[in-house]
Amino acid sequence: xxxxxxxxxxxxxxxxxxxxxxxxxxxxxxxxxxxxxxxxxxxxxxxxxxxxxxxxxxxxxxxxxxxxxxxxxxxxxxxxxxxxxxxxxxxxxxxxxxxxxxxxxxxxxxxxxxxxxxxxxxxxxxxxxxxxxxxxxxxxxxxxxxxxxxxxxxxxxxxxxxxxxxxxxxxxxxxxxxxxxxxxxxxxxxxxxxxxxxxxxxxxxxxxxxxx
Length: 212
Ligand SMILES: C[S@@+](CC[C@H](N)C(=O)[O-])C[C@H]1O[C@@H](n2cnc3c(N)ncnc32)[C@H](O)[C@@H]1O
Prior knowledge:
Blueprint (H helix, E strand, L loop, with lengths): L4 H15 L7 H13 L4 E5 L5 H8 L3 E6 L2 H12 L7 E5 L12 E6 L6 H8 L3 E9 L14 H18 L5 E5 L5 E5 L2 H17 L1
Parallel strand pairs: 1-2, 1-4, 2-3, 4-5
Antiparallel strand pairs: 5-7, 6-7
The chain binds S-adenosylmethionine (SAM).
Protein backbone atom coordinates (compact mmCIF):
# COMPACT_ATOMS: atom_id res chain seq x y z
CA UNK A 1 0.00 0.00 0.00
CA UNK A 2 1.23 3.50 -0.84
CA UNK A 3 2.27 5.48 2.25
CA UNK A 4 0.49 8.80 2.87
CA UNK A 5 2.49 12.03 3.15
CA UNK A 6 1.55 12.17 6.86
CA UNK A 7 3.22 8.83 7.59
CA UNK A 8 6.28 9.79 5.60
CA UNK A 9 7.05 13.01 7.51
CA UNK A 10 6.58 11.52 10.97
CA UNK A 11 8.43 8.36 10.02
CA UNK A 12 11.32 10.42 8.63
CA UNK A 13 11.73 12.26 11.94
CA UNK A 14 11.46 9.00 13.87
CA UNK A 15 14.09 7.30 11.65
CA UNK A 16 16.42 10.28 12.10
CA UNK A 17 15.94 10.17 15.89
CA UNK A 18 16.67 6.45 16.06
CA UNK A 19 19.73 6.75 13.80
CA UNK A 20 21.10 9.64 15.89
CA UNK A 21 20.11 8.28 19.31
CA UNK A 22 17.80 11.17 20.04
CA UNK A 23 15.25 10.11 22.67
CA UNK A 24 11.64 10.24 21.50
CA UNK A 25 8.31 9.10 22.93
CA UNK A 26 7.54 5.40 22.70
CA UNK A 27 4.84 4.15 20.31
CA UNK A 28 2.48 3.40 23.19
CA UNK A 29 2.83 6.96 24.50
CA UNK A 30 2.08 8.29 21.00
CA UNK A 31 -1.09 6.16 20.99
CA UNK A 32 -2.17 7.37 24.43
CA UNK A 33 -1.64 11.01 23.37
CA UNK A 34 -3.71 10.35 20.25
CA UNK A 35 -6.54 8.77 22.28
CA UNK A 36 -6.62 11.65 24.77
CA UNK A 37 -6.46 14.33 22.06
CA UNK A 38 -9.33 12.73 20.14
CA UNK A 39 -11.46 11.84 23.18
CA UNK A 40 -11.26 15.25 24.80
CA UNK A 41 -11.18 17.28 21.59
CA UNK A 42 -7.84 18.79 22.58
CA UNK A 43 -7.16 21.91 20.53
CA UNK A 44 -4.11 23.48 22.19
CA UNK A 45 -1.09 21.59 23.48
CA UNK A 46 2.06 22.79 25.21
CA UNK A 47 5.07 20.50 25.13
CA UNK A 48 8.19 20.89 27.26
CA UNK A 49 11.06 19.13 25.46
CA UNK A 50 10.81 19.21 21.66
CA UNK A 51 14.02 17.35 20.82
CA UNK A 52 13.70 17.20 16.99
CA UNK A 53 9.88 17.55 16.92
CA UNK A 54 8.79 13.89 16.63
CA UNK A 55 6.17 14.08 19.40
CA UNK A 56 5.12 17.57 18.26
CA UNK A 57 4.38 16.04 14.84
CA UNK A 58 2.47 13.16 16.44
CA UNK A 59 0.36 15.72 18.34
CA UNK A 60 -0.18 17.95 15.29
CA UNK A 61 -1.17 14.94 13.16
CA UNK A 62 -4.02 14.32 15.64
CA UNK A 63 -5.41 17.77 14.83
CA UNK A 64 -4.07 19.87 17.75
CA UNK A 65 -1.99 23.00 17.55
CA UNK A 66 1.20 22.60 19.57
CA UNK A 67 3.64 25.03 21.19
CA UNK A 68 6.88 23.24 22.04
CA UNK A 69 9.97 24.41 23.94
CA UNK A 70 13.55 23.18 23.45
CA UNK A 71 16.76 24.53 24.99
CA UNK A 72 19.30 22.52 23.01
CA UNK A 73 20.45 24.58 20.00
CA UNK A 74 21.36 21.66 17.76
CA UNK A 75 18.11 19.78 18.37
CA UNK A 76 16.13 22.99 17.94
CA UNK A 77 17.73 23.68 14.55
CA UNK A 78 17.03 20.11 13.37
CA UNK A 79 13.41 20.54 14.53
CA UNK A 80 13.24 23.83 12.61
CA UNK A 81 14.30 22.08 9.40
CA UNK A 82 11.76 19.31 9.88
CA UNK A 83 8.92 21.72 10.64
CA UNK A 84 9.80 24.05 7.76
CA UNK A 85 9.28 21.20 5.30
CA UNK A 86 6.33 19.66 7.04
CA UNK A 87 2.65 19.71 6.11
CA UNK A 88 2.02 20.48 9.81
CA UNK A 89 4.19 23.62 9.87
CA UNK A 90 1.14 25.82 10.52
CA UNK A 91 0.24 23.74 13.61
CA UNK A 92 3.69 23.55 15.26
CA UNK A 93 5.17 26.57 17.07
CA UNK A 94 8.80 26.01 18.02
CA UNK A 95 10.28 27.96 20.91
CA UNK A 96 14.02 28.01 21.53
CA UNK A 97 14.53 28.62 25.24
CA UNK A 98 14.87 27.08 28.67
CA UNK A 99 11.36 26.16 29.73
CA UNK A 100 12.18 26.94 33.37
CA UNK A 101 12.76 30.62 32.64
CA UNK A 102 10.80 31.17 29.41
CA UNK A 103 7.95 33.66 29.54
CA UNK A 104 5.20 32.09 27.50
CA UNK A 105 2.69 34.36 25.79
CA UNK A 106 0.15 31.63 25.00
CA UNK A 107 -2.17 30.32 27.68
CA UNK A 108 -5.25 28.13 28.25
CA UNK A 109 -3.82 24.84 27.02
CA UNK A 110 -6.03 21.75 26.93
CA UNK A 111 -3.06 19.47 27.45
CA UNK A 112 0.50 20.00 28.66
CA UNK A 113 3.06 17.30 27.95
CA UNK A 114 6.28 17.37 29.98
CA UNK A 115 9.08 15.38 28.36
CA UNK A 116 12.23 17.25 29.41
CA UNK A 117 14.85 17.12 32.22
CA UNK A 118 13.64 14.51 34.73
CA UNK A 119 15.28 16.35 37.61
CA UNK A 120 12.99 19.33 37.01
CA UNK A 121 9.55 17.72 36.95
CA UNK A 122 8.34 19.58 40.06
CA UNK A 123 9.39 23.08 38.86
CA UNK A 124 7.96 22.36 35.39
CA UNK A 125 4.67 21.22 36.89
CA UNK A 126 4.52 24.14 39.34
CA UNK A 127 5.20 26.69 36.66
CA UNK A 128 3.03 25.36 33.85
CA UNK A 129 -0.05 24.28 35.82
CA UNK A 130 -1.11 27.94 35.56
CA UNK A 131 -1.18 27.66 31.77
CA UNK A 132 -3.72 24.86 31.79
CA UNK A 133 -7.46 25.11 31.19
CA UNK A 134 -9.51 24.04 34.24
CA UNK A 135 -10.48 20.85 32.39
CA UNK A 136 -6.98 20.33 30.99
CA UNK A 137 -4.60 17.41 31.40
CA UNK A 138 -1.01 17.54 32.57
CA UNK A 139 1.03 14.56 31.37
CA UNK A 140 4.58 13.68 32.38
CA UNK A 141 6.65 11.01 30.60
CA UNK A 142 9.29 8.55 31.90
CA UNK A 143 7.92 8.24 35.40
CA UNK A 144 9.41 4.74 35.77
CA UNK A 145 12.82 5.77 34.40
CA UNK A 146 13.45 2.30 32.98
CA UNK A 147 12.66 0.67 36.37
CA UNK A 148 16.26 1.22 37.44
CA UNK A 149 17.19 -0.16 40.82
CA UNK A 150 18.62 2.70 42.99
CA UNK A 151 21.00 0.20 44.60
CA UNK A 152 22.52 -0.75 41.25
CA UNK A 153 23.18 2.65 39.70
CA UNK A 154 25.80 5.38 40.13
CA UNK A 155 25.22 8.39 42.37
CA UNK A 156 23.98 10.91 39.71
CA UNK A 157 21.38 8.42 38.47
CA UNK A 158 20.41 7.62 42.06
CA UNK A 159 19.87 11.36 42.66
CA UNK A 160 17.65 11.49 39.57
CA UNK A 161 15.64 8.51 40.78
CA UNK A 162 15.17 10.28 44.13
CA UNK A 163 13.86 13.37 42.33
CA UNK A 164 11.36 11.29 40.37
CA UNK A 165 10.20 9.69 43.63
CA UNK A 166 9.81 13.19 45.11
CA UNK A 167 7.76 14.17 42.08
CA UNK A 168 5.45 11.18 42.60
CA UNK A 169 5.00 12.20 46.22
CA UNK A 170 4.38 15.80 45.14
CA UNK A 171 1.60 14.54 42.83
CA UNK A 172 0.06 12.30 45.46
CA UNK A 173 -0.48 15.19 47.88
CA UNK A 174 -1.15 17.96 45.35
CA UNK A 175 -4.05 20.10 46.58
CA UNK A 176 -5.44 20.95 43.12
CA UNK A 177 -4.68 17.96 40.92
CA UNK A 178 -5.58 14.30 41.06
CA UNK A 179 -3.10 12.05 39.33
CA UNK A 180 -2.78 8.55 37.99
CA UNK A 181 0.50 6.86 37.16
CA UNK A 182 -0.09 4.52 34.26
CA UNK A 183 2.29 1.92 32.91
CA UNK A 184 2.30 3.03 29.29
CA UNK A 185 5.70 3.40 27.67
CA UNK A 186 8.20 4.17 30.43
CA UNK A 187 5.40 5.28 32.78
CA UNK A 188 3.13 8.27 32.36
CA UNK A 189 1.58 10.45 35.02
CA UNK A 190 -1.70 12.03 34.04
CA UNK A 191 -3.05 14.79 36.26
CA UNK A 192 -6.29 16.75 36.15
CA UNK A 193 -8.39 19.06 38.17
CA UNK A 194 -11.65 17.75 36.74
CA UNK A 195 -12.87 14.77 38.78
CA UNK A 196 -15.09 13.24 36.06
CA UNK A 197 -12.15 12.93 33.72
CA UNK A 198 -10.14 11.28 36.47
CA UNK A 199 -12.71 8.52 36.81
CA UNK A 200 -13.32 7.73 33.15
CA UNK A 201 -9.93 8.28 31.54
CA UNK A 202 -8.07 5.06 32.28
CA UNK A 203 -10.90 2.87 30.99
CA UNK A 204 -11.18 4.97 27.80
CA UNK A 205 -7.46 4.48 27.10
CA UNK A 206 -7.60 0.75 27.84
CA UNK A 207 -10.65 0.03 25.69
CA UNK A 208 -9.30 2.04 22.75
CA UNK A 209 -5.85 0.41 22.91
CA UNK A 210 -7.49 -3.01 22.89
CA UNK A 211 -9.42 -2.15 19.73
CA UNK A 212 -6.22 -1.13 17.88
C1 LIG B 1 13.22 13.14 25.77
S1 LIG B 1 13.67 14.52 24.83
C2 LIG B 1 12.13 15.04 24.13
C3 LIG B 1 11.61 14.10 23.09
C4 LIG B 1 10.45 14.65 22.31
N1 LIG B 1 9.35 15.01 23.18
C5 LIG B 1 9.96 13.63 21.30
O1 LIG B 1 9.32 12.65 21.71
O2 LIG B 1 10.23 13.82 20.09
C6 LIG B 1 13.90 15.74 26.06
C7 LIG B 1 14.30 17.12 25.49
O3 LIG B 1 14.04 18.09 26.50
C8 LIG B 1 15.01 19.09 26.37
N2 LIG B 1 15.04 19.84 27.64
C9 LIG B 1 15.47 19.39 28.86
N3 LIG B 1 15.31 20.35 29.79
C10 LIG B 1 14.77 21.43 29.15
C11 LIG B 1 14.38 22.72 29.58
N4 LIG B 1 14.56 23.13 30.84
N5 LIG B 1 13.85 23.58 28.66
C12 LIG B 1 13.69 23.18 27.37
N6 LIG B 1 14.04 21.96 26.92
C13 LIG B 1 14.57 21.10 27.79
C14 LIG B 1 16.29 18.35 26.05
O4 LIG B 1 17.25 19.17 25.44
C15 LIG B 1 15.77 17.22 25.15
O5 LIG B 1 15.93 17.53 23.79
